[in-house]
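Annotated sample (chain length 153).
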Amino acid sequence: MPLFSKVKTIATNLIIAIFLLHLVIYKCFAVEYRCPDTIKTIQSLPGKLSNGWTWFADTINNKQFLEAIQIYYGHPKDGASLVPDNGNNEDVEEGPYWTFPPSIKHEKYWIACSYSQNIIRLAREIPTKLKKCIVKYKKDKSKLKFVDRLICQ
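Output written by the structure step:
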């Protein structure tokens, strides 16, 4: 085998090895967050209603389904929701994603899970070592898209 051919083979194998190593490192350092698919809450009204109105707890339809995952600068209760880097366009094939520059005020980033017909949000802090998060979707049998998880690296 000529020298050039050996060098070419070694270079090709090295490129493949670097690519595979990159994939392994990417997977090892990615963190996956899964919001619960559904939650159950109890709602009530304080006091009596006027003008003949009454209320009841709908125990048949009391499951709330995961609708969205959002990123916040600081705790979500403070309301600093961040716009995804790729906008709020739901038509994009890739889910919304956020990249995190070093925090100026040393605030932390948080994720919040939003559920249908509910004001309850589940929240959790994102470790400061993570620099990017992307929402991944799943499709049901009818090909409708649903929020599945958040992957951060």
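Annotation: The mean pLDDT is 81.
Annotation: The CA atoms of residues 11 and 17 lie 10 Å apart.
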